[in-house]
Each structure stands twice: as structure tokens, then as C-alpha cells.
Design brief:
With 123 residues, the protein is an alpha+beta fold. It has one domain. Helices cover 56% and strands 14% of the residues. Helix 3 packs antiparallel against helix 4.
Length: 123
């Protein structure tokens, strides 16, 4: 198993850019909400890598997330972003087995925030 050296927090911010970039000067709560979606997509893939169901489990989890978001009235641009993230995870980060455990946004003392997260291996 090849575990990337790049911190999972940095990887997630780069991976999530298609959705995170939709936010214009977000509040911490808005940024957290978008990170929840990014992390859900990331973790669904990681868990499916360790699960005997493989890609089918991943697609089922994404369908569940999409249905939940649509039910909550998510705009089309956000649902399309979910599809973009799914493709990015399968193409650009397919071999990264890490999942995200506990995470938080930490005030950086300069009016901004930084992402702190725990990387875990599924299973």
C-alpha cells in the first residue's frame, strides 16, 4: 500500500477546489458545510477500496449523498460539483487509500482558518 507523503489536509483542499472555489468569502460554517461534502466523497472512495464491494459500494454511497443533497434543495451547481469530485477522486487520487477521521477548522490567528484532519486507513 502506497501512502502519499503530502498531508491529507492539503490533499483535500486541492481535491475539493471545484466545490470550495464556489464559495465567495465564506463564513466558517459555510466552509465547514462544503468540507463535509468534500470529505464524504473522499471517504466513500477510500472505504470502497477496502471493501469487497469495491466501486459498487462507492457509487451507492455517492448516489445516497446526491439524493440527500437534492432532497435538502442543493442547487444544480453543487450537485454537478459532486460529480466533478467523484471523477477527480477516481482519476487523480485513485491510489490514495487514506480516509479522513476527525477534522476541524482552526483559527490561524490572522483572520483565516486552516484545516486540521486525521488520516486513517479504512478497514
Amino acid at each position: 500500500m502506497n501512502i502519499p507523503e503530502k498531508k491529507i489536509s492539503r490533499t483535500l483542499l486541492e481535491f475539493g477546489e471545484p466545490l470550495l472555489g464556489l464559495l465567495d468569502d465564506p463564513t466558517p460554517e459555510e466552509f465547514r458545510a462544503m468540507l463535509n461534502i468534500v470529505i464524504a466523497v473522499w471517504n466513500a472512495h477510500g472505504v470502497s477500496m477496502a471493501n469487497k464491494g469495491g466501486r459498487g459500494v462507492y457509487l451507492e454511497e455517492l448516489a445516497r449523498l446526491r439524493q440527500q443533497m437534492a432532497h435538502e434543495g442543493a442547487p444544480a451547481v453543487l450537485l454537478n460539483g459532486l460529480d466533478t469530485l467523484s471523477r477527480r477522486r477516481e482519476v487523480d487520487h485513485a491510489d490514495d487509500p487514506r480516509c479522513v477521521g476527525e477534522w476541524d477548522l482552526i483559527a490561524d490567528g490572522e483572520g483565516g482558518y486552516r484545516l486540521r484532519c486525521e488520516a486513517r486507513l479504512p478497514g
